[in-house]
Every structure is written in structure tokens, then in C-alpha cells.
């Protein structure tokens, strides 16, 4: 079914409500993604579309809402456009719709998990997983973890036998990079997340912070002398450092670490 056919079907089923509207949901949809958008209004009590508006301009939505003063609740996203439009109904309550609540909650949860992965990695290895309790998506991730573990064990076993990396690559068919990651212990996470180059330096950074070091540039220069290969932005950027440093440090850390030259530089 084409997009145009689907829209025609929706329009045919969009009848003028015989009863007055009270609780509606309003959101945008794409006629053509990235180019043209419209607005859909649904009757949330009867669970059916009410109308399709030709654009998502707040003036268009506001004019339509003004013609339906019986509406007492408007469910919408958290953007400002439809919030402005809903001012046509000053007596109506505005609430966040269920989808956006779940989306925002999911995003906040994943953000919190990503900031705690250093601690999760330390405990997840000792956790016993019961596949029967996993969802389908979680089971796929767990099965992938088991396959990675089999690969890891095979590579480690060859390494224990004294087989050089070049021969391990030939025997297993895996890339040299993957074999090196396994031998360095960098491929055993249950959750596959991108490792930061700061990861192994965090204990050192924690210690220097406790000693009073607050200058990102000076810390980076010290790390470079000790063999750190990352760029200064990894240390000074809030998304790199702030998200990974331990809790007590993070509580006092500004949105971006001070990035300034040390005296005399």
C-alpha cells in the first residue's frame, strides 16, 4: 500500500464526530519525510482520527482548535508548536502523550546507563542470566554475547598454547584487531558499548582530581607524557570526561571542564 493510498483511507474514515470532542491527541506526520509535514488530530476517547490538517503550522492548528471549544484535554508532544496552538483553548488541560512520555523516559534511562557502564561492566560478569526471563530483543543480545564468548575462549586457548597472533588470525579467520581486543580483555561485555579511550585512565584521573588538579589541558599533557594517544577534546569535553568520571567528581564538575593553558605555557 502506497503512502497516498494510506492517507486516502484515513481521510475516508475521518468522519465529523457526531458527539462533541473532549479529549484529543495532536501530532505531526510526514507527507514526505524531510520536506512536507501535516497534522493529525485523533479522538482519544473513541480511538479514531478526526482530521488531517495540511501542515503543522501552529496557526493552522490553532484555528481548528478554536472551532472546537468542547475540547477539555489536549495530548501532545513536548515541543512548543502545538503548545502555542492549544492556547486557543485556555480552559483545556495540556498533557504529554503516552508515546513521548515513554520515549523521553527511555532516553533518560539509556543516558543514565551509559554514564554508569564502568560500574556495570564490573558486576555484570558475575550475574547469572536466565534466558527464559529475557524479552526477544534481550535474548538476541544475550545469544550474541554467548557467541562472542565462544570466539574469545577459542582465541585465548590458542594464545595459551603459544600460538602467535598472526597464526591465530589465520586459524580462526578473525581480524587482527579483534584478536588483539580479545587478548587485551576488551571484548567481554554483556552490553556492547563503545569504549572511550579515557576508560583505562579513569583511576589515574580520579587520583589527580583528588589531588586538586582541575585544568584539563594540564591533565591532558601529563597523560600524553605517560602514553595517552587521545586528543585534548576527549579530556576537556563534557560528553567525554563528565560522563565517565566517578560520582563524587561529577557532582562538582561543570558542564565542561576548564580548558585553559597552564601558567607559563
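^ Assign residues to that structure.
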Amino acid at each position: 500500500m502506497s503512502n497516498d493510498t494510506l492517507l486516502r483511507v484515513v481521510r475516508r474514515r475521518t468522519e465529523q464526530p457526531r458527539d462533541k470532542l473532549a479529549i484529543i491527541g495532536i501530532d505531526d506526520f510526514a507527507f514526505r519525510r524531510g520536506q512536507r509535514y501535516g497534522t493529525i488530530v485523533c479522538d482519544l476517547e473513541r480511538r479514531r482520527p478526526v482530521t488531517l490538517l495540511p501542515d503543522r503550522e501552529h496557526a493552522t492548528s490553532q484555528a481548528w482548535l478554536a472551532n472546537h471549544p468542547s475540547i477539555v484535554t489536549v495530548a501532545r508532544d513536548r515541543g512548543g508548536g502545538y503548545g502555542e496552538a492549544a492556547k486557543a483553548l485556555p480552559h483545556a488541560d495540556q498533557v504529554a502523550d503516552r508515546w513521548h512520555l515513554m520515549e523521553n523516559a527511555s532516553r533518560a534511562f539509556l543516558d543514565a546507563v551509559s554514564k554508569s557502564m564502568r560500574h556495570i561492566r564490573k558486576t555484570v560478569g558475575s550475574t547469572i542470566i536466565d534466558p527464559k526471563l529475557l524479552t526477544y530483543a534481550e535474548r538476541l543480545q544475550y545469544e550474541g554475547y554467548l557467541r562472542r564468548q565462544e570466539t574469545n575462549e577459542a582465541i585465548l586457548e590458542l594464545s595459551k598454547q603459544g600460538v602467535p597472533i598472526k597464526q591465530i588470525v589465520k586459524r580462526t579467520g578473525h581480524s587482527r584487531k579483534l584478536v588483539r581486543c580479545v587478548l587485551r580483555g576488551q571484548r567481554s561485555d554483556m552490553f556492547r558499548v563503545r569504549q572511550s579511550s579515557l576508560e583505562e585512565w579513569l583511576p589515574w584521573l580520579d587520583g589527580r582530581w583528588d589531588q586538586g588538579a582541575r585544568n584539563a589541558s594540564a591533565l591532558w599533557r601529563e597523560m600524553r607524557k605517560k602514553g595517552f594517544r587521545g586528543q585534548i577534546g576527549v579530556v576537556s569535553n563534557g560528553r567525554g570526561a563528565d560522563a565517565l568520571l566517578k560520582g563524587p567528581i561529577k557532582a562538582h564538575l561543570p558542564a565542561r571542564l576548564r580548558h585553559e593553558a597552564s601558567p607559563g605555557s
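The longest helix spans residues 136-160.
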